[in-house]
Write a structure and sequence with these properties.
heterodimer; A: 262 residues; alpha/beta; four-stranded antiparallel sheet; B: 269 residues; 8 helices; 87% helix; globular
Chain lengths: 262, 269
Amino acid sequence: MIRLENVHKQFGARKVLDGLSLNVHEGETFVIIGPSGTGKSVTLKHIVGLMRPDAGEVYVDNEPVHSATPPQLEAIRRKMGFLFQNGALLNSLTAGENVALPLRQHTDWPEEKIQAAVEEKLSLVDMEGRGDVMPSDLSGGMRKRVSLARAIILAPRIVLYDEPTSGLDPVMSNIINKLINSMKAKLGITSIVVTHDMSSAYLIADRIGMIYKGKLVEAGPPKELLKTTNPVVRQFIDGKTEGPLTAEEVPATGGGRGWRRK
Amino acid sequence: MVAWAASQNVLNRAAEGVGQLITGAAHSAGYGVLLLWRSLGWLRALWKRRQEILHQMHASGVLSLGVCLIVAMFTGMILAVQAGRELARYQQQAIVGSLVSVTMAREMGPFMTAIILAACVGSAMAAEIGTMRVSEEIDALEVMSINPVMFLVMPRVVALTLVCPALTILTNVVSVVGGAVVCQSLLGVSYYVYFDNALEILELKDLYSGLAKALVFGMTVATIGCTQGMLATGGARGVGVATRNAVVHALLMILILGYFMTRAFYDVA
């Protein structure tokens, strides 16, 4: 359903993606892990067309994103929702207006129908009755949940999540994880999740792929990944400080502990 | 030898700095023209975005009105004091009204209004859009297939293009009234004589050339503010740079465009 073929991206002298190829199947939740600055968020931005590759190809539903014209890109993006790391809610609008925004821009629905849809999505993310609150008055977790409601308001078939649990307490992280799983179960959404949080990855992933130095170094179901002998992946999921990764590249939580929690 | 290498190094860095300045300015100017062109293309969404346009007109017009009127009043009074002092030496203080009205209508009215809008509104546009850019709100709009030019830029450009001439008219009127107060109280010129002279000398061309300038200045200030906001990078510092650039670039463009428009309306040949 989503395919990246030999994608290269460079910012100045820094090579971020160096021949990245990956394939995400319809209906699966694919979790991308990897050290900071290795190109995970950049990968998402290529899929949604916010960035164009220097070389290589990106396809969504067999439609080329890398060479799409603005109208084609608009059509491709209508299939997708995107949860930004900090929520990216429009601060001048209330939470409800943020969620209603795609409907107001892309449909001719009457106001009552829009309000009903907004309330439905807000209740799906446990935010019912909070539509009148400004984003600045919401906590980080609430902003993410409102952003998630906005991402799914047009019933997309694909949702991309950029660090959905970063900066959240463990309880809020679990609420977000359950939301991702419930949306997959209820709406059959294909998801790509970028995260550092290994416990979260094990809870939601059908497959986990690790990006390192701009390449996908390993991908597979969580159980297979736990048995990996690749030293880079091994060190990352165990959260060990000794190994090929530098201290800054290793996540705070080890994979084994998260796996046992599930 | 070491001194020679060091001076070469300094020269290289200076040349590199100048080069970056020129390419940066060219990029910013090119992007600004493109942004204006695209916002004009989005005029088809005028009705759909009418609420936002009215909101922007309120934010830029009504909230700048007080500053504009105070500056206008005192500018008219200063003009009257300075001109009246000199003209009184030749017993010609009666024509101060003509001088104030022509100066304000042709040049000072649109110029002052645009400068106030650049400082109050253009900077705010750059800061607001810049903050949206660095906090990924503009990316979020794009992902939702909402064109940021249609959603953010066009309403601001339209609003300021309409507000600047409207404020200019008020600025002109208030400054002429300010001049009248000074003339009557300090120079002994009656209100009747002052306003008679002020209105008699004005030609239609003085009014429309001034309003045309105001229209262009309004469009320029909004375009530059939005351009700098859209090009902002690097967090709070980037937003600060964008805000400062928006004011500086707008002031320069107001002066440059003002000169060429004056030349176009009042050929000196």
